# Entry
Amino acid sequence: MISESIITIKGLTKDFPVGSGYFRALNEVNLEFGRGEFAGLIGPSGSGKTTLLNIIGSLDTPTKGEVIVLGKDISHLNSQESASLRKEKLGFIFQSYNLLPVYTVYENVEFPLLLLNLPETERKKMVMEALEWVGLTQKVKSRPSMLSGGECQRVAIARAMVKKPIIVLADEPTANLDAENSHHILRTMATLNQELNTTFIFATHDEKVISYLKRRITLADGSLVSA
Amino acid sequence: MLSIKLAYKNLIGAGLRTWLNVFVLSLAFVIIIWHKGMLDGWDHQAKSDMIAWECGGGQYWNDKYDPNDLFTLEESHGILPQTLKELETKKEATSILISQGSIYPEGRMQSVLLKGIDPDQQILDIPSTKLKTAGSEIQVLIGEYMAKTNRLKKGDVFSMRWRTSNGAFDAADAVVAGIFKTNVPTVDAAQLWLPIETLRQMLDMPDESTILVTRQISENHPEAKGWKFQNLSILLSDVDKMIQAKSISGSILWLILMMLAMLAIFDTQVLSIFRRQKEIGTCIALGMTKGQVIRLFTIEGAMHSIFAMIVALLWGTPLLYLQAVKGITMPGDKNTYGITIADVLYPSYSLGLVASTCIIVFITTAIVSYLPSRKIAGMNPTEAIRGKIK
Ligand SMILES: Nc1ncnc2c1ncn2[C@@H]1O[C@H](COP(=O)(O)OP(=O)(O)OP(=O)(O)O)[C@@H](O)[C@H]1O
Ligand SMILES: [Mg+2]
# Structure
């Protein structure tokens, strides 16, 4: 089933310092993800889904164990290297969209391409293509404050997808959306997964999301229940 | 390049707050330049007036002459050596003989300095040709201030008393041959100008001089025994000291303005880093390093100064230009300033002044913007993304 492993997690443990001791958010997690998966971390609140997603995204580091993402050992990346990994290969989608408020829809989607120093003509082509995927070509000049929650999340998906990353990490992408909008963005992501072979990893406890997943990974109290 | 573009968008996006900061900063800008320009203009005007009316291209002083010590004045004169005499015959210099005396206009007594000058001299702006008027009384020239304080008019006659070389007192009547207007108080207040030959006869000091004023821009300053050459930087050092003192006292105003502007920018930075932590976290998730984000925020803050320069240019240029052309009318009695000052002051704004002000303001703003931005380095991106940092 797993074609080509792009994420390998071995014996991952994550402790957070709490008071004088620590809190174990992840405990001896072993996992592997292949190219083109549409997978989700599911489990109750506090089970460690976000923590795991952040470590895969090199926004956080393991306390113990090994996490290899696209051949890079997350524990041993300096800030420069982890920034380029995110810049070039990873896309993020957040629960509260996290669009840059002073930028237009177009500029928000263009942002990751600016970081990659792509020339203007190429950027324009890619931004318009990404906005087409999410059906927002009519709103290029709008600012986030003028958009609905569903539209904001679609902009965020376009921003995550515009550079055609290998992996997209989505933490509760539907938590702030109604059913109709949730289905809309999930269908969009499922299509992109099919067409571009992008790996999607979700963290969620939303039944609607779970129903779209091709692989469900259950966490409980920081440990893997089933993969 | 990217940071500049992003910073620009962020600043414009921040709206009113940006423009308030920019306005205060532009105010500081214009006031710094105006204040410095006025002092530079004053400095320039005071020096050129002093050169024209008093200093020439430098002066030779009799070795014993000390302008701050009136008691030695009676000994500090002598006959010019040959080398200096030559300068005078070639019209490269002119002698001045100085002595003490008193005048009695309307019966009141006033101590004055008697200054003998060649009526034909063309080294100084003092209108000495007016001394060539014929008459039975001694012809004297005075400045406007002197005329005003002693209520003297052209043609007024008053008696004058002085001591001759052998110590005896002598007296004669003098007539005001002319009143001149000058910005240089040291040739005006309590100064009485008369033909040098007349003064030499009065004092019984044939051919003698106290100082020799050389022509402006003349480089010909030979050594002369018994006489020391005083160059312009010595003669004008009082102006330098004065301008320096004024510069320090005046700086307080723009220092306060500058501090206000910096405080506003610092505050904006602190607030924006706190409020925009979600944005900071997002930028990091999208692949910026913390260093890049710090740079972005620093540039954003420093850009206030660029905006301020443009805004200052817009409203400051016409204002400063107008002042440079029309001048600033100095209030009150100019002699109370105690130093050369014109009725109308023309500020001078040099490119160097504007450029150095720009650089100073830019660097200060950059530092003030950088300091709070360093906080970003300590942020945990996963918490910043959710805006959870308190
Ligand atoms: N920075 C931190 N410091 C201390 N404890 C933390 C920190 N981050 C997470 N935790 C704890 O680790 C545990 C797992 O957190 P995590 O955010 O991964 O849970 P989650 O599965 O994403 O939950 P939710 O569904 O509510 O988002 C929680 O108990 C949380 O309190
Ligand atoms: Mg979570």
